[in-house]
Amino acid sequence: MKKRGRDKKNHLVLYIFLILFILLIIVSIQQAYKFTHPKRSADFSNNRHPKDHQLPYEDIEFKSRDNIMLRGWFIKNDNSKGTILLIHGWNDTKEDLLNHSAYLYKNNYSSLLFDLRAFGDSDGDFTSLGYFEKNDVLGAIDYIKSRDDINQNLGALGQSMGAASLVLATI
Questions:
Q1: According to the 3-state scheme, what is the secondary structure of the chain?
Q2: In terms of Cα–Cα distance, which of 108, 99, 130 is closest to 117?
Q3: pLDDT score for 69
Q4: What pLDDT tens digit does each residue of the chain (171 aa) get?
Q5: What pTM was estimated for this model as a whole?
Q6: Nearest 5°: CA angle at 158, between 154 and 161?
Q7: How are beta strands 57-63 and 110-114 bridged, if at all?
Q8: Core vs surface per residue 64-88: b (16+ CB within 10 A) or e
Q9: Which residues partner with 83 through β-bridges?
Q10: Are 161 and 90 in contact (CB under 8 A)?
């Protein structure tokens, strides 16, 4: 009788661990999905547009190297020493880099700000946290190189996932 009771107890412990393991898998999948499919924000607070910083801007769109349509702004300084590519981080948008763009403009640089895939105004359904976003960075560089009116002395600043995308684009 004691052995039979011990077997039931062992089975119960095994079932509890199995249930906990399945719950862990479900929560992990849910969190991975949430992390790679960010909600698009609609923050229209102050200072969220180049006009709010008195910056001359041009609405632009271009394709990433893997054909995702990306949208952003080109802030052109007529006395530009170069063009700086500004790349936002995870769960941010181009609007979060406007202060950097204003600073660069005051110091005679042009800047290109755009939303990475699945963020802001750009197309795309998911983010890879940098791996596929390298194609977005390369598409932005291709866009700059395609225009004769843009200073081709190129620099870049990436934040968080934007920095990872930038580094991956150089490899």
A1: CHHHHHHHHHHHHHHHHHHHHHHHHHHHHHHHHHHHCCCCCCCCCCCCCHHHHCCCEEEEEEECCCCCEEEEEEECCCCCCCEEEEECCCCCCHHHHHHHHHHHHHCCCEEEEECCCCCCCCCCCCCCCCCCCHHHHHHHHHHHHHCCCCCCCEEEEECCHHHHHHHHHHC
A2: 130
A3: 98
A4: 566 667 788 888 999 999 999 999 999 999 988 888 887 765 555 558 999 999 999 999 999 999 999 999 999 999 999 999 999 999 899 999 999 999 999 999 999 999 999 999 999 999 999 999 999 999 999 999 999 999 999 999 999 999 999 999 998
A5: 0.84
A6: 140
A7: unpaired
A8: bbeebebebbbbbbeebebbbbbbb
A9: 110, 154
A10: yes
Rounded-to-integer distance, Cα 59 and Cα 96, Å:
16
Residue 8 has what pLDDT?
A: 80
First and final C-alpha spacing in the chain: 67
Q: Which of 168, 162, 170 is nearest to 87 (CA)?
A: 162
Q: How many residues does the chain have?
A: 171
